[in-house]
Amino acid sequence: MEQQTQNIKHFIELSGALTDFNEFALNGTGQVAAYYQTLVDIVGQQLVDNLLSTYCSVYEISINEQMFLDGLRKQILGDLKLGPVARNIIKLWYTGTWYQLPNTWRQAYGKSDNDITFFVSSASYMEGLLWHAIDANPSGAKGPGYGSWSQPPNINFDNAWQFKANYQ
Amino acid sequence: MTHSTRTIKQITPDQAIEKSANGEYHAVIIGSGISGAIAAKQLTAKGLNVLVLEAAPAKDLTYSGFKQYLSNYYSNASKDNNAPYPENPNAPMPRSTTISKLIPGQTDAKGYMVQNGPLALDSTYTRVTGGTTMHWEAKILRMLPEDFSIKSTYGVGLDWPISYDDLMPYYRMAEREIGVSANVEEQGFYGIKYEQDYVYPMYGLPPSYLDQVVAKGIDGAEFELSGETLTVKVRPFPQGRNGIPNPNYNDGNGFKPVGAVSAHQVEQGGRCQGNNNCVPICPVQAKYDARKTLVDAAQTGRMDFLPQAVASKVVVNPADNSIEHIQFKHYKTTQSPEYTEGKVSGKLFILATNAIENARLMLASGLPSSSGLVGKNLMDHTYLLTWGLLPEAAGTMRGTKCTSGIADFRHGKSRSKQAAFGVDIHNDGWGWATGSPFSDIEYLVDGQNKFGRDLRQGVINRVSNQLLFAFMVEQVADESNRVTVDPQYKDALGNMRPIVNYNVSDYSKAGIAFSSQASKVFYQRLGAEDHSNYSPLDYGYFNYQGEDYYFRGGNHFSGTHIMGTSAENSVVNENQQSWDHANLYLIGSGSMPTIGTSNTTLTLAALVFKTTEDIINKLSHYRIDLGNESNTNTAKEACHE
Amino acid sequence: MNNRIINNIDDLYQMLDAAIQLEHATIPPYLTALYSIHPETNIEATQVIRAVLVEEMLHMTLSANVLNALGKHPDLTAEGFVPDFPTYLPDGEKDFQVSIDKFSPDTLDTFLNIERPSKQPPDCGCTELKGCIVRSNHQKFQLKAVKPLKSATYSFYSIGDFYDAIIEGIEYLEEQAQQQGKTIFIGDVKFQVSNKYYYSGGGNVIVVTDKDSAIQALDLIKDQGEGHCQQIFDPQGEIAHYYRFEQLKLGQFYQLGDEPGKPTGEKFAVDYKAVYPVKQNPKMKDFPQESLLYQAAQKFNYSYFGFLALVNQAFRGQQDLLLGAVCDMFRLKEHATQLIRNPIPNDPSQNGGPTFEMFYALQPQTEHKTTEAEAV
């Protein structure tokens, strides 16, 4: 349980850096637990642990944001095994959809029967971060009100992720 | 007041059969879409008893059933026109997801609608209670007066047996039934006229910010065509969804918008909230759908509603060629093809399924009509899509699907040489063409290797700047475009499926080609990147005069039982009454000989009002005892105001 | 002392001020309970609470129209207009308090109390003070925006009783005025919020210009709340709030013809577990000052005050602002939902929520051009 809590905390931190949405925005979707569980169900706990510990080590050695982002790109996004998973996490947050992993990845690291393209839930569709990014509502939900569309969009980065050096 | 318990009571097949046998029905109506619903409402309001058969279940009449549609939509990985509506092998419907490129000479029977080619048509309709108005976009245009006489004016297509003036009062009734939001002063162009002092029931919806950006760039663009100068102006569309009621409507009595349909207490159906999802389902029921009309009919107490009953055969009495009864197959569950059969009858019969299904049922019943035109002259609007990126964030993906467009290519002398077209500015961006915005996320993450701030900014630039023009190109009547049936293609209940034979003529292709040129001018004026491309692998691909294009179907099926001046040149008369069978009416867009450049629903709804007026006149000759009922009826009508 | 609660025009103004405050006071609890429910779960509870919430917004508008018709304007930005939760309601029921809380059986009981029908039999024709309980401790009732009534100290058993007193006052005062060839309805009609800017599934707003339209407006509030003549359904087939909520308690819908307490409609389950654990009556001080949750909660309160200010302007002649207020309400709803889904950093077993603490020193800018009812 303790480990799980710690993992979810790291999952949120990693997700924040990958998506540029802060923890409040990520929690605000109500999807943290569901996405973490989806990830574990499909790629397995071991790989998730591997991903999160890689994230932690990148973070620990980074003395500034640039170094941290560079580490993420090289150690995680640029990794044959972790890269596709990390990109799936980004797409999951932005769209609410789990995308089936690439065939080459599935051949190399195992095929889960659950690894198909699907919306995690009908709620996850509505919580895609892409809509927040462009100040729009997910089509079919959360209508913003009569006439709101005739004003320019209010696009801002108020809830953007921010690098914090040296946690602890 | 809230229509908190607006719903419809259903009857059993046995009750319908028994009441038919007892001669209790003045009319049997097949289909509960907009045509059937308006017919039911108008006839019951005059004290007539009707039976409505619906092929689909009627779960959406409860809020939980409606909510299920929404949940289906949210969780469906495909967001196509019919994504919210459950698969039903007993009354299947076409889905664009089953369409693929046709191999010349081969029939493609993957989807419900069998594709015989040469071009694949991805248009759909929805077989649920309320019909295709559940998924329609609800842009609701009148036809231009010149559309009714296209043959005599421009030498192409077919003339209507009636004129705009004949239809004008019925347009008005249809606009009231649907609850149209528009401003007369923005809509009276190219011959469209209104009665003096007419106003639409509700004020027009505000144009989107995207519309304003586009208008700034392209308003005033001039095009020389057939010796005429066409000047572009972005104009708002009339909308079949709730806006702000116009207090001047109905001689200053105003208009009361119609709210949601539901068996329980739910607060929905107010003004459009901009959910950007008119197609395939309005989540708040601000958009008109035919269930709203159907409920009104039910509240008269004179409509019997029998869902899960698929009409399977129209049976003719050989003695006088009248329709004797209609056979139907009733199933208990969509999970099983088991059914019971029955027959229903009334003084007259109204087929209100849609242009494809009306023709399919007639042909499956062996009734091609004496003209042989049932199923022929199938028309649709062919769409050319063009898409690009504006130099600024235009707030795309907000608002109702489409608030404005361009009408300036819908009329004029060029129609003798090339198809006219209307243009829609899509508030949902590239969705129709590329699957945006999901495909954009895939592109940015997997293709562009973006993450973090780069990605977030990339999403803004890639999505909020999107612009898509949909050029809705006219298609004129052509007998070789047609619906047929063949016993080798049947659905789960053993009913023959529609087979579509479809091509796009050079006349339409010329219109598409000119659309493409106009589009290039627009993008240039807007300083936008043009991202349009048409792959030869696309199922709608064609090459015309050396250029690549593709088209998309417009879901505006029509022409399969055209109206005309005689039994030789048409299937129905101007009142949509069959020339061959005096007690049979085929209603809907199938009756339209020309569709011009207007989405078909308003015109077909107007036609139903004209038809029901005729039916009521005719039935009064039968000396039906309307008795006291007409009094209560008047009161109810007043109440509905 | 006579039998009337309202004896002069100032009494009436104050009662209507209280009415507006009362209708508004139900909004934070209903809104929080509504958005504490996990999305896509508890469809019935969601639709019921939402329907009631939408109508409370209508009621607030109707009360404002009545007050405007008398030539006075409401003040939604007055200090204390938004109660400090938990709170007694401004009409003075003494036996329960209202909290900002998650959707739960206790919350539902409170909602039933808020909307409970009068104990008075309808049209009893009795002459004593209708449904009124004499009370002495005004401080307890947080009528901060409303000065205590000068005439007497009363509290009411039900909201319906409270409105009965107002209606009685209007009838009495208007009759007095008429006898002198005057009217109490001296307000300019331009201050009336009309259907052009307000309409929703929650019913039509009524423009108030005279006694009849005022009573019609107040009757609508009563009928939608506790029921028309204490019936479950009104003549249009609309179900009253009390019975809407009771359905959730009983797990079954009412249908026309049912007896109170014995619904016969479709049954359904209510899942109190599919709810975010919102901290009861959250306050800013409950959130660590440096946390994102704190910042967001503070921003919500500023925005909410801005929203009230906008509605206030709309009630003071600029009714076109209501269109924009709706859009603001939609944003506030999203914002509240995010707060409700965020654990409190130093107390992760509980989630945050909107605190509805107003900062009256700061008057936010409200420049939006555009009925809050649709937004929830």
Topology:
The complex is a heterotrimer of chains A (168), B (641) and C (376).
Chain A: H1 2-19, H2 23-28, H3 32-43, H4 45-61, H5 65-77, H6 82-95, E1 97-98, H7 103-109, E2 118-119, H8 122-126, H9 129-133
Antiparallel strand pairs in A: 1-2
Chain B: H1 13-21, E1 27-30, H2 34-45, E2 50-53, H3 63-75, E3 114-118, H4 150-154, H5 164-178, H6 184-187, H7 209-218, E4 222-225, E5 228-231, E6 234-236, H8 249-252, H9 291-298, E7 303-306, E8 309-317, E9 322-331, E10 339-344, E11 348-351, H10 355-364, E12 382-389, E13 404-406, E14 421-425, H11 431-434, H12 438-447, H13 452-464, E15 466-473, E16 482-484, E17 499-502, H14 506-526, E18 529-530, E19 541-544, E20 547-550, E21 552-553, E22 584-586, H15 601-621, H16 629-640
Parallel strand pairs in B: 1-2, 1-11, 2-7, 3-17, 11-22
Antiparallel strand pairs in B: 4-5, 6-13, 8-9, 9-10, 12-15, 12-18, 12-21, 13-14, 14-15, 16-17, 19-20
Chain C: H1 9-25, H2 27-36, H3 43-69, H4 105-114, E1 132-134, E2 154-156, H5 159-179, E3 199-200, E4 203-204, H6 211-225, H7 241-250, H8 292-314, H9 321-341, E5 343-344, E6 347-351
Helix content of chain A: 55-70%
Q: Roughly how many Å is the radius of gyration of chain C?
A: 20 Å
Number of helices of chain A: 9
Q: What's the β-strand tally of chain C?
A: 6
- The largest beta-sheet of chain A arranges its strands as 1-2
Into which percent range does the helicity of residues of chain C fall?
A: 40-55%
The biggest beta sheet of chain A is recorded as: 2 strands, antiparallel
Most residues in contact, chain pair and counts: A-B, 51 and 54 residues
Oligomer: heterotrimer
First-residue to last-residue Cα separation of chain A: 21 Å
DSSP summary: helix tally of chain C: 9
Strand order within the widest beta sheet of chain C = 1-2
Strand percentage of chain A lies at under 5%
Q: Uncertain regions of chain C: pLDDT < 50 for 5+ in a row? A: 123-128, 135-152, 364-372
* Shape verdict of chain C: globular
Distance N to C terminus of chain C: 45 Å
Instruction: Average the pLDDT over all residues of chain C and give the rounded result.
Output: 85
The sequence of SSEs of chain A as H and E is: HHHHHHEHEHH
Mean pLDDT of chain A: 94
Coarse structural class of chain A:
mainly alpha
The low-pLDDT segments of chain A are: none
